[in-house]
Design goal:
- The protein is flat.
- It is α+β, with helices and mostly antiparallel strands.
- Helix 7 packs parallel to helix 10.
- About 30% of the residues are buried.
């Protein structure tokens, strides 16, 4: 048996080893020879995504991780905005006859941290690159990410690259020989020098025009290109301005993008004169200007990843809106908008290409990588021409306006002479008419004076009545407030209820200052009596009914000593009819009552319930919901079936069981859409919060009511009582 086990483990080990070897050697090997002194590494790499961002080079060497590397089949690794670390694995065979020292060039300087590992002997050599690494700390202090690697001739060397960044994970990388690296740097620096030189010349030229002409379009033009200079992700700001990594060196790109969009929107509004010629378009651009300003201010409070994503999206949306704005202005007859549209067409194509490239939506290419630079240079030229063209158009329009004004002035002079003659004749006629009108006005003034005296007398009378009404209203308000204090004093106190029950809550929300709903409690002998009552009416009438109901319950139980809840309700019905003389007056006011009698016994508690159109709800200690329905009869008024008898319902209770009594005001609470709160909503809240203490349950019910009701007006008095046995 041990031999079979040993063979089994041996076979498993062989299969695992074979799988690891197959996985390792399935990767393509990048070959360097005499005909290749600069090679793109994209199609020769494998990658592993470290989502937890915790692995180091020793972890990466383990067979478990090696099996998870994935072969990359594109020219340039591009993963978009992903918050993970990426490990890149490259196997390079150096067949070159001259060079063993090569250079890894990663042409995307805005990566935060790049660690390059390769074996030299039995030790891992490490180079640290990235825009969070001080320039002096790099092996080759240059704006882009360049690391020297030693590749022994005739051998296969494995390189690992760890990429960690908050922005887009884009890695156009090459292996250069020393001569080819010098050549590549020289060409790129020449091209960038020409481009930056052109931008700076145009920037200072248009700034000079602004100070000369005081035209705000030139100022916004300069601010736009100044913001864009900070955006160009080629490491120049990092290499020549910041040099040391900092929060600002990382966030300069989102800030530059937001600033350039703010300036571009201001330029469009001023250059296209949207406020004057296209008011609706002006409001739209103003909205995007506010949005751009908000994003600009928010950059300092969010992560770089979020800031880069938001400003990239802002750049795309604003650029498209600005292009559409130019088309609208052009169709509206603005001749200067033609060159403006051409300028934004060029930059829009470039920005779309670069944004899609950074997001990983399109494959990498040198043209796509530099598309925004090409577009911005073309845009600079066309916007400068557009500004010059607009000045020429304004000058021609001013000359035409001056000529038209001169002709108009001459015509006006002729008309004025004719009008003067006519006016002299009219003045004489009008003078005579005015004398007649003056006499009529004197008569009317006398009549108006008499009417004013009458109005003054009426005003004094109205003011006096208003004072009397205000005094009466103040007196009534004070009386109602005092009535509220009396009503609250008649309700059971918290101390009284807490002596009888382990935990409870009461929510009492009158629709007006005083309420037609009330709760009632008394203890007689071994019984606890508890009731929640909904009287007819609101405000003062309802409050009178509640005082009558409270007084009658005290008399029936504590004086008449009636014990059974059904008999108590029948007696209450008769006494309400007698007190209100309903047989003689035809009064139909009454009450809906939920009445409980609780008695402690050896085995638990005995509950006897009787209800007049109100039910009792129980949640037992296991969380089960039960409803004890009351009789379909009210207290007082005229019963449709001619009967006033009520029935008792009995139930055994246990410790921690909960009882809930409430009036229909809580289920009838409306929201602005006229939908009622409903029994099911209340049931859900009470059942789901059944394990919480009663005070917490009270706060939850109030919170849910407020959330549902919002600003809708309360229709009825609201009363709910919950007790725990």
């Amino acid at each position: 048996m041990s031999i079979i086990k040993s063979m089994k483990y041996f076979i498993i080990t062989i299969l695992a080893t074979f799988t690891t070897i197959s996985s390792t050697f399935a990767q393509k090997v990048l070959q360097l020879n005499d005909s290749k002194e600069s090679v793109a590494i994209g199609k020769s790499i494998a990658y592993f995504e470290d989502k937890e961002k915790v692995l180091n080079i020793k972890d990466i060497e383990t067979p478990e991780i090696q099996k998870q590397f994935i072969q990359f089949n594109k020219d340039v690794p591009s993963f978009g905005f992903i918050n993970s670390n990426f490990w890149i694995k490259i196997q390079i065979e150096n067949q070159h006859s001259s060079y063993e020292d090569w250079y890894l060039d990663i042409d995307f300087p805005v990566l935060d941290s790049v660690e390059v590992y390769y074996l030299q002997g039995k030790e891992w050599k490490k180079h640290v690159l990235g825009d969070k690494v001080p320039l002096e700390a790099k092996k080759i202090p240059f704006r882009s990410l360049i690391a020297p690697v030693h590749l022994p001739m005739g051998k296969v060397t494995t390189l690992y690259i760890k990429v960690q960044t908050d922005g887009s994970v884009l890695m156009p990388a090459y292996i250069h020989s020393a001569p080819q690296l010098i050549k590549s740097i020289g060409i790129s620096e020449l091209l960038f020098g020409m481009m930056y030189g052109s931008l700076l010349i145009m920037l200072f030229y248009n700034l000079f025009l602004y100070f000369s002409l005081r035209n705000k379009s030139y100022l916004y033009y300069c601010l736009y290109f100044l913001g864009y200079l900070a955006v160009m992700p080629d490491g120049y700001t990092y290499a020549f301005i910041f040099k040391e990594p900092s929060w600002l060196s990382q966030m300069i790109i989102p800030y530059g993008l937001a600033l350039s969009m703010i300036a571009a929107l201001l330029f469009a509004m001023h250059f296209l004169q949207t406020k004057k010629y296209t008011p609706i378009l002006h409001k739209v651009l103003m909205g995007f200007l506010i949005l751009s300003g908000v994003i600009f201010l928010a950059i300092g409070f969010i992560s770089y990843n979020a800031a880069a994503a938001y400003t990239t999206l802002l750049l795309m949306v604003d650029s498209f809106v600005l292009w559409i704005s130019g088309l609208i202005a052009w169709r509206s007859g603005n001749k200067a908008a033609k060159l403006y549209v051409a300028a934004w067409t060029a930059v829009l194509i470039g920005l779309i290409s670069v944004s899609l490239l950074v997001a990983g939506a399109i494959p990498f290419s040198s043209l796509a990588r530099r598309a925004n630079y090409i577009g911005i240079v073309i845009q600079m030229v066309f916007l400068s021409l557009a500004l010059a063209d607009r000045i020429n158009i304004l000058r021609k329009e001013r000359e035409q306006a001056q000529a038209a004004a001169l002709a108009s002035a001459q015509e006006n002079e002729r008309i004025i002479k004719e009008q003067n003659t006519l006016l002299e004749e009219k003045v004489d006629e009008r003078t005579h008419e005015l004398q007649q009108k003056q006499e009529e006005i004197l008569v009317q003034n006398e009549e108006l004076h008499q009417q004013q005296e009458e109005i003054t007398a009426q005003r004094d009378f109205i003011e006096r009545k208003n004072r009397e009404l205000n005094q009466l209203n103040e007196h009534m308000s004070m009386s109602i407030q005092y009535a509220s204090k009396i009503q609250n004093a008649s309700l059971p106190s918290s101390e009284q209820l807490q002596k009888s029950f382990s935990d409870l809550f009461v929510i009492n929300l009158p629709r007006d200052v005083v309420s037609g709903d009330f709760y009632w409690h008394t203890r007689r002998l071994q019984y606890e009596y508890l009731a929640v009552v909904d009287c007819t009416g609101h405000g003062v009438p309802g409050a009178f009914m509640s005082m009558i109901g409270s007084t009658l319950l005290n008399e029936i139980i504590n004086i008449s000593k009636i014990e059974e809840p059904s008999a108590i309700l029948e007696t209450l019905h008769e006494r309400v009819k007698n007190v209100l003389k309903q047989s003689d007056t035809g009064n139909t006011d009454g009450m809906d009552v939920c009445l409980c009698r609780i008695k402690k016994q050896d085995f638990g508690y005995e509950l006897v319930f009787a209800g007049a159109k109100r039910s009792l709800y129980v949640i037992d200690y296991k969380g089960n919901w039960k409803e004890l329905k009351g009789d379909r009869k009210s207290i007082g008024g005229t019963q449709l079936n001619g009967s006033t008898s009520f029935s008792d319902q009995r139930l055994e209770l246990h410790k921690s069981d909960r009882l809930y009594m409430f009036t229909d005001g809580i289920t009838d609470i409306p929201n602005p859409e006229r939908k009622k709160f409903g029994l099911e909503s209340l049931k859900t809240i009470l059942v789901e919060s059944g394990k919480a203490d009663m005070r917490s349950q009270q706060h939850l019910v109030l919170s849910e009511i407020a959330k549902f009701q919002r600003d809708a007006v309360q229709r009825d008095d609201v009363l709910i009582m919950g007790i725990e046995i």
